[in-house]
Amino acid sequence: EIAEITGTTIEAVRTNLSRARKKVREEYLKIVRSSK
User: CA 19 to CA 1: how far, in whole Å?
Assistant: First the structure.
């Protein structure tokens, strides 16, 4: 569905989601580490 809406391929959507998850995880860990 996302690929249809954005006009991209399923592979591109998977790649973007993977990158986004990684970035969120990295930012979250930065916040957690700095609050200790």
Answer: 19
Cα(36)–Cα(11) distance, integer angstroms = 38
End-to-end CA distance of the chain: 40
CA-to-CA distance for 1 and 36, rounded, in angstroms? 40
Q: What's the whole-model pTM score?
A: 0.71
**pLDDT tens, position by position, 6-33:** 999 999 999 999 999 999 999 999 999 9
Q: How far is CA 27 from CA 9, 24, 30, in A?
A: 27, 5, 5
